[in-house]
UniProtKB/TrEMBL annotation:
Signal peptide (residue range): none
Pfam families membership: Phosphodiest
One term of GO molecular function: hydrolase activity
The name this protein goes by in its record: Phosphodiesterase
């Protein structure tokens, strides 16, 4: 078991560096190009949810097109936590977690709600409450997105995302600035991505596919169902590449990797009294937890969680995690307020579940979010026309 966390390489090798590099390659002024992308007229950034670097390399036979692109390349890091909500915002804004403030799958808002970022609703058992009016996405992440910056410079920006994400809180916070094409499956995703680039002038398309992540959660990463889905994604990427117009590129990335968390490795907050004493809220997800303590109880909660988890997790206070650079080189006030009093990142194949509050998440076999290489390392693959 590794003794040190893999801290994301913010600034020269993280998801937050992808769109700034693409914008620089498209000629948008004022940006940086840390990934060294050559000049382009058009680009499609395809995000494959859950396609970790190590998983791709291990199952290269099921993805010959992507595997060929990976030859001779090095992975980048996702960011922390290594989860969809945080990573999509890092891509869309071109900023690390501490700047954009979407600090996890779930976190506490200033009003004390536990926000489920993917649904932009309250989190937990019972009826979900839509928080888009109470916790306005454009205020939750107020900085201009990379897509807005591109559009302001005259780049035609399109999104090809599942139809249910149109107008979602996360889309408004992280990906505003482009025209949206709602898609239903692999076929129309390929059509929408190709159409977004098929015209004169500078063009940028952000495309997203999420089913590999879903199958990894349900059946486990590397399972037969997961591998067959990977084969379809490989064909998707090849199809988009074949349709690229002149002087264009397909850039394939992922938001995180994934590990298998067997039942015997799950620590259940809801059945372990020591983990709830002095605790107001538990956010995050199975591999990374934000623990919000009652006033004055942080030290006792810290000691209890360290005692229960031992070497199965890194258990840091908010200040320790910030000082360690987990959330980026700088952490804005609005982001700091959302981070738990404790930040707990699992090691090995450990998971911290909530069987009563999160029964579905608890049963999932595949999980992600922490600072291991399996979760942090993701591909950055470039195919040019």
């Amino acid at each position: 078991m590794t003794d040190t966390p893999l801290v994301p390489r913010y600034g020269d090798g993280a998801l937050a560096d992808v769109l700034p590099s693409v914008l620089a390659a498209l000629g948008v002024p004022g940006g940086r190009n840390p990934l060294g992308l050559a000049p382009l007229r058009a680009a499609c950034v395809l995000l494959v949810d859950g396609l970790g670097w190590r998983l791709l390399r291990e199952h290269a036979a099921h993805a010959p097109f992507l595997a060929e692109l990976a030859e001779g390349r090095e992975p980048i890091t996702a960011g922390f936590p290594a989860t969809t909500a945080t990573s999509v915002t890092a891509i869309g804004t071109g900023s690390p977690t501490g700047a954009h403030g979407i600090v996890g799958y779930t976190f506490r808002t200033p009003d004390g709600d536990l926000l489920d970022v993917l649904g932009w609703t309250t989190h937990g058992q019972g009826k979900k409450v839509d928080l888009r009016e109470k916790f306005v996405p454009e205020n939750a992440q107020p900085a201009p997105t990379a897509l807005e910056r591109a559009a302001a410079d005259g780049v035609r920006v399109r999104l090809a995302v599942p139809h249910q994400f149109q107008g979602s809180g996360l889309t408004r916070a992280a990906l505003r600035g482009g025209e949206t094409s709602g898609v239903f499956a692999l076929g129309d995703l390929a059509v929408a991505a190709a159409a977004a680039l098929d015209a004169d002038g500078r063009r940028l398309c952000y495309a997203y596919h999420g089913d590999l992540d879903l199958l990894g959660h349900v059946y486990g990463p590397g399972s037969l169902a997961w591998r067959l889905q990977l084969e379809h994604i490989d064909r998707l990427a090849a199809t988009i590449a074949e349709a690229l117009p002149a002087d264009a590129a397909l850039v394939v990335v992922a938001d995180h990797g994934m590990v298998t968390v067997p039942e015997e490795n799950r620590v259940d907050v809801d059945t372990e009294p020591a983990l709830t004493e002095g605790v107001r809220l538990v956010g995050g997800e199975v591999r990374v937890r934000h623990v919000y303590a009652e006033p004055g109880a942080t030290a006792d909660v810290h000691a209890a969680w360290r005692d229960v988890l031992g070497d199965r997790a890194w258990v840091l206070t908010r200040d320790e995690a910030v000082d360690a650079g987990w959330f980026g080189p700088e952490v804005a006030d609005h982001a700091r307020q959302r981070i738990g009093d404790l930040v707990v990142a699992c090691r090995g194949r450990t998971g911290i579940v909530r069987s009563a509050v999160e029964p579905i998440l608890t049963r999932m076999l595949g999980q992600h979010g922490s600072l291991t290489a399996d979760e942090q390392l993701v591909p950055l693959l470039v195919h040019r026309s």
